[in-house]
Amino acid sequence: YGLPGMAIRVAARRGDLIARITADEALRENPFDAYDELRARGPVVSNRLLSATASHRTASEILRGDKFVASAGGGATGLLDRVLTAAVDPRALGPVDPPSLLVVQPPQHTRIRKLVSRTFTPRAVNRLTGRMREVADDLLDRIPEGEPFDLVEAFAAPLPVMVIAEILGVPTTMRDQFLRWGNEAAATLDPGLGWRAFWRADSALRGLNSWFEGHLAHLRHAPGEDLLSKLVHDVENGDRLSDTELRATGLLLLGAGFETTVNLIGNAVRLLLDHPGQLAALRADPSGWANAVEEVLRYDSPVQVTLRVASQDLQLAGLPLPEGRPVVTMLGGANRDPEVFAEPHTFDVTRPNAREHLAFSAGIHYCLGAQLARLEASIALQALFERFDGLALAGSPTRRGTRVLRGYTELPVRATTKS
Ligand code: HEM
Q: How is domain 5-418 classified at the CATH fold level?
């Protein structure tokens, strides 16, 4: 992610802990012991290339303070920013102008964020509750009773694409194409991308980008009621998004809309199937679903890692860091910090302070889609578990190949009783 991938892979092979956490495929299934090991070494741990933290307190200080900046051209921070960077100019090696919200600095960040949040309000999101349920029910209608199916392919992946596509006003018929582009582009989030994956991602990004440009051109002539049309035409105090800002923002919303919530839904289903007692309690009292979603976000965070860079020489947790030093903030590790969460490795949907997780980051880059993701996951899970009394694993789930995003590519299940 903007860090020298090869150097990290070599360091990982030599056993360097930070490098292993960021690049070692063996930790894909379980990175949590390594986060504990890192935290035990101190709130901030450094090697030759970078520093890292898995401490909740230190991670919050980094994200909420103003001494660190999200790095332009870096992807992990940038969650989808590598994607966007490349989407704006696939050959761009350095920062592009303008990069997405995820990596721009104030005052530009403040300005763009304000324009977007004016249309993407919690009220606007809450209005979608009924529609989300309809989309979820439609997908569930197609699932055959008694036969094994892949929960990711049939439900967890298409639902967020359909929802974000409707919000943005992009055609839902493009669903499968978006998913293909998204999967190929997501490979760019991890360090040490091989050439083959690079070319695949590059071609996916070109496809997505050029399609999106055409779509925006169409909205200029024939605006609808959707969020993108509003962003194209809205002017506030004489200010509006420039063409490139619009493209970067629209692609960020689209990509963030379907590359993350799929993981939240998939991770939740797996965890609940593994904890039948907790699932039964939620079925009996659905008012617990919102907190259950928070606990999944904490325990199995869909975005595990983000990156910041020291904007000046500074002290962090009492240690000096030079200007320009990258610090990997292990969100998934901060969310297992015993200083904040009692018995952090226990999954408990009734945990009173689950919401203190950093799964949506914190500070100025706090996830703009947090409300949408929470609501969507809670609706999806309720719809699924109401529909199927008996849902059980029907094979071994496969984790996604990425370290930044944590989810499943395949979650085989069987629905025994359809109500
Ligand atoms: C930013 C996580 C869903 C839109 C972020 C960041 C994280 C995150 C960790 C900040 C990264 C950093 O600080 O470097 C998640 C998770 C999601 C989710 C875990 C689902 C479970 C969504 C959805 C949307 C969205 C559904 C929109 C439709 C955004 C945007 C930003 C962002 C626009 C950039 C905000 C800024 O930089 O000001 N998200 N996200 N996210 N997310 Fe999400």
A: Cytochrome p450 (1.10.630)
